[in-house]
Specification:
Largest sheet: 5 strands, mixed, barrel
CATH superfamily: Nucleoside phosphorylase domain
Number of domains: 1
Number of strands: 10
Helix content: 25-40%
Radius of gyration: 16 Å
CATH architecture: 3-Layer(aba) Sandwich
Number of helices: 6
Order of helices and strands: EHEEEHEEHEEHEHEH
Length: about 220
């Protein structure tokens, strides 16, 4: 079954507006829905913000809902001029930029202990432009983070969940698909102000593309 793991209620609303809710419950402190979406039964877990929440929500979707395809939809920040505000991108590679064992293992930033490369490879949807995503538990304008994200990792997009969802899926042997709508772009002013200004644009575009996203995986 396809299961959507989405961080916030506001990010989940565009999907639920197109779905017929069959059940609504709370499991492990997370809102869980079973829905009929365009004639297909799907699961939805509202995980909460951040990597731990995202990984736990993903495991919940896999173990308790029987998810064999995990789909994450959310808003995210752009890191270069290859992305546009409001536009949706499919993720081809994901990494956790705040994970660092380089001092112990001598591996590049973001390389998980059980892996040899920092980026986890995903299968992007052919219906959306493919980009590289870096995830971390920070929402900031820190120049040190920006240097890691761009100069070290050459990421196109940053968020707070996708890399952890990809990690949980990889360990469980489950397909993973990430879709990100751009709410802000580095170097274009305050990340917070851009996010507040552009959130509605992103959510409206997600709503308009829910069927396309669901059909593409």
């Amino acid at each position: 079954m396809k299961c959507f793991v989405i961080a916030m209620d506001k990010e989940c609303a565009p999907l639920l507006s197109r779905a017929s809710i069959v059940s609504d419950s709370v499991l492990s402190g997370r809102r869980v829905y079973r829905c009929n979406l365009f004639g297909e039964e799907v699961g939805v877990v509202v995980s909460g913000v951040g990597k731990v929440n995202a990984a736990c929500g993903t495991q919940l979707a896999i173990d308790l809902l029987g998810g064999d395809k995990i789909i994450n939809i959310g808003v995210a920040g752009g890191l270069n001029k290859s992305v546009e505000v409001g536009k949706i991108y499919s993720i081809s590679h994901a990494v956790q930029y705040d994970f660092d064992l380089s001092q112990i293992n001598g591996t590049p930033v973001g390389t998980l202990d059980e892996y040899e490369e920092n980026y986890l490879k995903l299968t992007p949807s052919p219906l959306f432009p493919a980009k590289k995503l870096a995830s971390g538990d920070r929402f900031d304008d820190n120049p040190k983070d920006y240097e890691i994200l761009t100069k070290v990792l050459s990421a196109d997009i940053r968020d707070m969940e996708g890399g952890a969802i990809a990690h949980a899926c990889a360990r469980a042997g489950v397909e993973c698909y990430l879709f990100k709508a751009i709410s802000d772009i580095a170097g274009s002013g305050s990340t917070t102000e851009q996010y507040v200004k552009n959130l509605d644009i992103c959510l409206k575009n997600v709503a308009a593309n829910i069927q396309k996203i669901a059909a593409s995986v």
